[in-house]
Amino acid sequence: MAYVEIPTLDGEGNFKAWLAEPEGTPKGAIVVIQEIFGVNEGIRRKADHWASLGYLGIAPDLFWRLQPGVELNPDEPEQFQQALGLMQRFDQDQGIADIEATIRAARARLPEGGKVGAVGYCLGGRLAFMTSARTDVDASVGYYGVGLENLLGEKHAIARPLLLHIAGADHFVTPDKQAQIHEGLDDHPKVTIYDYPGEDHGFAAEMGKRRSANAAELADSRTEAFFAAQLG
Questions:
Q1: pTM of the model
Q2: Where residue 130 sits, what CATH number does that domain have?
Q3: How confident is the model at residue 232 (pLDDT cuts 50, 70, 90)?
Q4: Would you call 200 a catalytic residue per the annotation?
């Protein structure tokens, strides 16, 4: 488990990604897409967990153009505000390009025909939706993605399975927005949505005040079953 360098799609730069490798041949790869807090300990733990299940886990540093190596604590108000500032400056289209570069790098580390999934949280949940619509990722999962109601125009491009976890009491995604997401996606043949009534944004964090253990364990079990089925 260590950081590796990944070349950008245009070949004009490199960025770091946390790589967690399983024992033996990986049965697939999971790209872990960060929250607004960077590739912090919680995100690294997510990648490490996938390695413990036999996958290659890889978490790219998507804020590298703004500030490489960001690691912020959401429970610290000053750091939370810093994270919001980074998100406002973050170019999401460039982020998707870096995720695509990470997908390619992950595939190169797998046996021929190996599949790659992506799972994201918060900002990463939004990017997971975009990754599903804009890249050749084999399957994607988004936890409490923000602003998905504004991305529904891209749903026609979702050709591979996408799983979404929605926090019912998410203060960033209000009930009216949740209703729009359901109305736009409930009949999509490639999309599955699970709701978690009473749960707030960040409930599946690995640590800290936001974590809600029962809901996190349920959502994570569904994600693990989803990737087991889709990535083989």
A1: 0.97
A2: 3.40.50.1820
A3: confident
A4: no
